[in-house]
Each structure stands twice: as C-alpha cells, then as structure tokens.
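Write out the 3D structure for:
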Amino acid sequence: MQIGEVAEQIGLSLRTIRYYDEIGLAPPTARTPGGFRLYTDEDVARLLLVKRMKPLGYSLEEMRDLVELMDALASEEREDERAELLGRVELWEQAVAERVAALRQQLSYAEEFSSRVAGEKERRRARTAPRA
C-alpha cells in the first residue's frame, strides 16, 4: 500500500507519516524502484499504535520503545527472550493503566469545572433577569 492510501486509511497526514519514517519510528517495509514507500499491514498497525500514543502525551522515544518492543515480540521465538519481552509489555500495561487513571481524574476535574461555570452563568442570569 502506498503512503497516500495509508494516510487516508488511518487519518495521518503524508507529512507526519514521512516524518515517522525519517526518524525511524515507523519506516515502510519496502520501496518501489522509483523510491515510493510501500506499507504492509504490519507497518499500518505500527503507525496506528503511534497515532494512538501521541494524544496521550508519549514522547517519540517512548513511542519508539513500545514499537520496537512489539516488533521484537512479534519476531521472537526463543521462549526465554519472549518471557523477558512479555515482562516489559506488562510494565507498559501498568504504566498505561496509571496514565488512564490520571486522565480520568483530569476529566472528572474538567467536568466539575464545566458544571460550576454553567451554574454560575445560570445564577447570574437569574439575578439580572427582569422580574414580572
């Protein structure tokens, strides 16, 4: 699949996909003789993983760490190394759960703040409304 198809399918800009390739975060598996990027389903999955991490505030290095970990896990056949990789995935799982909890708390604060602002608006509206 060429870069334009990938961009349309997953909702990333061509520029972003090229940048992720340039920094080695999500390079395509192959290129045509003319130099056009060719992406496999695995490449698209890698880009989707990065896309999901970005709005959660993960750094490029953190993204790279998880992408490399998932790639290694997909290719590792030795049981001892696979167990070590799975242990690292569990650490990621715990860290993500902590981030989710923090985001839920932030959302709760935001909802409370929104309610207070709406309540204040209604109180002020009631005070300034003409009385019949």
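The beta strands are 30-31, 37-38.
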